[in-house]
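ping. complex inputs:
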Amino acid sequence: MAETRERPLPDHVTTPLLTLITQQALEEDYRSVAQRRSLRPGAEPPRTRMLAVAALLVLGLLVGVAAVQNSRNAAIQDAGRATLVAQIEQSREELSDTQAAIADTTRENRGLTDRLTGLTTTREATTSRLRRLQVATGYLPVTGPGVRIVVEDKPDAGERELVQDADLAKLVDGLWEAGAEAIAINDQRLNPLGAIRNVGTAVHVNTVPLSPPYTVRAVGDTRTLQADLAATTHGAEFFALAQQIGWGVDVDNVGELSLPAARQRRLQHVETGTAEQRSGGGVEEGQP
Amino acid sequence: MIAALGLLIGIVLGLIFQPDVPLGLEPYLPIAVVAALDAVFGGLRAYLDGIFDDKVFVVSFLSNVVIAAAIVYLGDQLGVGGQLSTGVIVVLGIRIFSNVAAIRRHLFHA
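pong. complex structure:
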């Protein structure tokens, strides 16, 4: 300790801080003043304590003001807290509303997705149906494997022995029946509105006169088309007739046939759309 | 007796008039109160020791209040107001406790 040294350090240096605070809790001045007073006994008259009372009054004032201030602040803080709580609750409600909206939207979205899937499927089906119809009606030029049948009149044939519309129609009907997807005769594509007709001795297809030999080209399955054609009633009749009269009939499988589109005829009486759509539009049905 | 009366009157005045403390001084009020309490307990202990002197009391009262507030103000300016006010409260609290302990020994001889 400091006492063992040659020059001991003063107490206020060596004393730990907390101990110092505790020791000097009472103001040193009280002691020193009292000491001075005791050195001169009776020198000073007992003083009035108005100063001390004034100081206490100030303390009371301080305490009172602090208390008032604190309670005011507490009120403000409470109000702030209440406001915050209200805001939190409101935000929670908004959050739950939003979450409900999200759930609704998600459900709606799922429904719409399902509908979209359904519509896509329908569209694909319709598109493929449209494609089939376009091929079957000769709206589109087509390419594909198929069978080429060349029918030639017998040399020095009489008028009754020429190839006629009904014979070619039989052959075409047999081909349709055997599964042909598109048929053309001498580059005249067959379609539902076209016809195979005799005018005099010449065969007209789609009102275009053809001259023999007649080349019938049918797009279809090359593995089965010929056999199926021979098996159909119309095909069998045609081949029997050809053999009987002596027409030259040449049947070949062809890897790739290119069939032109049919000549487009202007539709005169047909309007697009279903009856409901038209009644909604208020369009009068056209009279010829 | 007169001293207790003064304290009471001060409290009542403060509660009645509710003077508005300037916003800038508001944080220093509690520290000032604690410092004043320290001076008051010191004075009470001195009174019981029989060495009370009102001049010393008033000077210690005022200097305690002003210094405590000044330290906290300085701390606020430096950004460590909270820590410094904690330090002031700790020191003043220790002093108050030891003074009150001395007063207790005087009053109850225990």
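Residues 281-288 of chain A have pLDDT under 50 and may be disordered.
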